[in-house]
Write a structure and sequence with these properties.
alpha/beta; Alpha-Beta Plaits; eight-stranded mixed β-barrel; 14 helices; 16 strands; 21% strand; globular; binds ligand C2E; binds calcium ion
């Protein structure tokens, strides 16, 4: 911390101030910033500062930082408020793993705009204004659909469709993620049952967030919903990100084993951009990983991305884990994935996420749709 303080001081000018607020928390005050955009130059400078390792007793130590920014007078008018909002932004940066974040009222639990949006979300859940769109997962060997990912949508009466990235974060921070997840599980399980009754066998994947993994009521609720929906657990799969597991690994692991014992299978979402390694997954009941779309989208042009995809597939297979590539947008990508022995694929090349009726039709009519009965099927 001492060394870090010195490094921070070394890149700032009079009258900037560096303060050590406690533990691993620093504040930097930049009273002379000419324009708000220039903050990015300072962020870059601070991030560069951390690139070279710190040396403790001759041991090189790598340090990472999450930087939160609040601007005066746009974000706050008093010093207390400014510090508080910088802290909110810092936590957002930490949670998203992005390294830095600018304060935004939607991050702030107490901001009126956020409070209003969350009050409306609560209503939307109760009044069924949320909906699920479904996107197929295709088995690369026989080019047929084996499952569908359920993705939540909010059709707001005034604002129209609000993308999930805008309300899931706030819902996590306010606890509304719990009723939302229960709603989505009930809906997805119900849908799975309707498809099965119509002779369409689709494994439905639902996304869980970090907070869900800490919810002691989740396993009981899942058992109840499966029983009420008369759906076998092998038709439901949960997708969780590495960072959700890393928020509280001990609890997450316990929860995953409890759900595994119920019969639920897990897929690790956005694999490759988080902190965990495949060896860490060995300790968890994981049957599938989804390689993050940022690697898949670029793999046909970028050798590095292709190499990461190829080695991830090989390592996962050696651990007995299936691999899904997400973000497959072209035939060329699909061919390359097939050559790499990837198990399944998902992306705009096959279909965008679709409303339920359109998806049911797609399942029956698309070339990539479900296998007709009689053909051998293989579940992923
Ligand atoms: P995700 O779980 O990684 O979902 C995949 C996202 O990638 C979806 O965005 C999907 O529309 C998009 N996508 C699919 N194929 C392609 C492609 O070929 N190219 C590109 N560029 N993108 C593709 P969406 O639906 O906006 O969801 C964003 C994120 O919101 C999801 O990322 C997930 O983290 C979260 N989310 C969505 N629904 C739920 C939910 O029900 N519960 C929770 N906890 N999170 C959800
Ligand atoms: Ca997902
Ligand atoms: Ca993903």
């Amino acid at each position: 911390m001492k060394e870090l303080g010195l490094r921070l001081q070394s890149i700032l000018f009079e009258p900037d101030v560096v303060a050590h607020l406690g533990a691993d928390l620093f504040a930097v005050l930049l009273p002379k910033l000419a324009k708000a955009e220039d903050i990015h130059l300072v962020i870059e400078k601070i991030q560069k500062l951390l690139l070279s390792p710190f040396s403790i007793d001759g041991l090189p130590i790598a340090v990472e930082a999450s930087i939160g920014v609040a601007l005066y007078p746009g974000h706050a008018r008093t010093s207390e408020e400014l510090l508080r909002r910088a802290d909110i932004a810092m936590h957002a940066a930490k949670e998203s793993g992005s390294g830095h974040a600018l304060y935004d009222p939607t991050l702030d639990k107490h901001h009126p705009q956020r409070l209003a949006l969350m009050a409306e979300l609560r209503q939307a859940i109760e009044q069924n204004h949320l909906l699920l769109h479904y996107q197929p997962k295709i088995n690369i060997r026989d080019k047929k659909t084996v499952g569908a990912e359920a993705l939540v949508r909010w059709n707001h009466p005034q604002q129209g469709m609000i993308p999930p990235d805008e309300f899931i974060g706030p819902a996590e921070r306010t606890g509304l993620i719990h009723p939302m997840t229960y709603w989505l599980l009930r809906t997805a399980i119900q849908q799975c049952r309707e498809w099965r009754q119509a002779g369409l066998d689709v494994v439905v994947s639902a996304n869980l967030s970090a907070r869900n993994l800490l919810d002691p009521k989740l396993p009981g609720t899942v058992v109840e919903l499966l029983r009420d929906g008369e759906v076998a657990p092998e038709f439901i799969q949960f997708e969780i990100t590495e960072s959700a597991i890393m928020t509280d690994p001990a609890h997450a692991q316990k929860m995953m084993f409890t759900l595994r014992d119920i019969g639920i299978r897990f897929s690790i979402d956005d694999f490759g951009i988080g902190y965990s390694s495949l060896s860490c997954l060995q300790k968890l009941p994981v049957s599938q990983i989804k390689i993050d779309k940022s690697f898949v989208i670029h793999m046909t042009q970028n050798k590095g991305a292709a190499m990461i995809v190829r080695s991830t597939i090989d390592l996962a297979h050696n651990l007995g884990i299936d691999v899904v590539a997400e973000g497959v947008e072209t035939e060329q990508t699909l061919n390359q994935l097939e050559e790499m022995n990837c198990d399944a694929a998902q992306g705009y090349y096959f279909s965008k996420p679709l409303p339920v009726n359109a998806f049911s039709l797609w399942l029956q009519e698309s070339l990539w749709g479900l296998k007709k009965s009689g053909e051998n099927s293989q579940k992923i």
